[in-house]
Amino acid sequence: MKFDTAAFRARYRADIHPHYNAWLHGGFVLLFGAVCIGLFWSHAHNVRPWEWLAIPVAVLFQNWGEYMVHKNMGHRKHGYSALFYKRHTGDHHSFFAHGQMAFETRQDWRVIFFPPWLIVVYALVSLGVWWVLSLFNDNVAALFSGAMLLGYLAYEILHACEHLPEQHPVSSWPWVRQMRRLHALHHARELMHSHNFNIVFPLWDWVYGTLYWEPENATAHLRTNRVLQHHVDIARSPEQVFAYVSCPTRWHEWHPYHVAIKGPKGSLPAGSHFEYEGGRAGSLSWDVLAVQPGQRWQASARGKYGLAMVVTYDCTATATGTRFTRTLEYRFANWIGRTADRLFVHRRIEQDSVALLRTLGQVAERVLPHVP
After folding, report:
1. How far is residue 119 from each of residues 27, 79, 81, 370, measured CA to CA in Å?
2. Within a domain: 32
3. Cystine design at 276: which of 34, 231, 284, 356 (Cβ 3.0–4.6 Å)?
4. Residues 119, 239: one domain?
5. Is residue 102 part of a domain?
6. Is residue 372 part of a domain?
7. How far, in Å, CA of 261 to CA of 88, rounded?
8. How far is CA 1 from CA 190, 322, 361, in A?
9. Angle at the Cα of 68 (from 109 to 100), degrees rounded to 5?
10. How is residue 171 annotated by DSSP?
11. What is the pLDDT of residue 246?
12. Where would I find the Fatty acid hydroxylase domain in this sequence (predicted)?
């Protein structure tokens, strides 16, 4: 069993130059961009009402350019954009796989931000635009060019927010939260070449019919709670793994503790209900929330001490089989449960989750037939 994303991250980090400074990288981009915006806008004087329209027009144009470059250069391999394709699809999408969207160290900013020199090139292009437009109207030229750079900075900032850890306060801000969801869906391998290319505002995804939204259902109210996510690679097809893990009456085969299930047999569809006994949680009442055959299975449960939890199983195809991702979100409404969770329960759940996936990988490869 191999953790492919973790291995790629380790290799990528090992190749980062030892003198790389994440604060210097991000700080230069923001400071240089802000200074250029100020210089452009300083050339605007006595702006007439209609001239202010240059700003929204520039933002719309930049948003369209963001969409087109992301879609046609970041996800389609061309000779003239091979470096961009490698950095984006090759590095960024391998470093941040679906279900592993958060950066872990500041050095990881290198694979989130564009290279520092790119904003210099972009500023020079904006300078050219300013010169052309200034032949007709100085104010429009200044406002339009400055707004173009503002769009670039908005991209860098919001994209970084979309890779923040789930528990970060900014992650719960309304617009950031929506765009994080769209970007997370974009990082799913079956969607990344076809959907959700806008980063700041999904206007052109909507216009071109590439906007894809998948509600998070019951996970929405668990935003501020504990989130555990673990991965394991299994040398079986996604369909096999999905059918196996979405059948609760077989959970006892791969749970590292005694489990008893009362409910329907087979892979359960959305709307199904079953009862669970076992592990540290004791008695749990489960309801299946959402199902994407062969890809995702999600269910919620309630237990004692005000325990509410949502578990999501994601099956993603790999070269050798399936990357199985288990995401557990939970909270305790009762103060006794919250206190116990802070003292020792969370640590034990983390240990159980690691053991659970390790056992799943071993058992699944033993009980599921190998299909060449």
Report:
1. 12, 22, 17, 50
2. yes
3. 284
4. no
5. yes
6. no
7. 44
8. 22, 10, 7
9. 35
10. G
11. 94
12. 57-210
Crossing angle (nearest 10°) for helices 116-134 and 138-161: 160
Phi, psi of 162 (to 5 degrees): -75, -10
Q: Point out the residues of the chain with pLDDT beneath 50.
A: 1-3, 218-224
Six-digit token pair at 305?
Answer: 């001490």
Angstrom CA distances, 79 to 70, 74, 225, 372, stand at 16, 12, 46, 35
Reading the block at residue 240, the tokens are 């096999």
- C-alpha span between 123 and 41 (Å, rounded): 13
- Tell me: do 161 and 297 sit in the same domain: no
Domain that holds residue 95: 4-207
Residue 87 sits at the vertex; the CA angle it makes with 82 and 89, to the nearest 5 degrees, is 85
- The pair of structure tokens assigned to 169 is 């306060």
Pair 124, 159 in one domain:
yes
DSSP H stretches of helix in the chain: 4-15, 22-41, 54-72, 82-85, 93-95, 116-134, 138-161, 174-186, 203-207, 238-245, 335-340, 346-367
pTM: 0.59
Measured CA distances, 336 to 236, 303, 304, 343 (Å) = 42, 13, 10, 11
Number of C-beta neighbours around residue 68 at 10 A: 14
The CA distance from 300 to 298, in Å, is 7
Give dist(CA 113, CA 311) in Å, integer. Answer: 32
Q: Which two tokens stand for residue 237?
A: 């097809």
Neighbouring residues of 363: CB distance < 8 A, sequence distance ≥ 6? 253, 254
What is the C-alpha separation between 301 and 309, in angstroms, rounded?
5
> What integer pLDDT is reported at residue 242 of this predicted model?
94
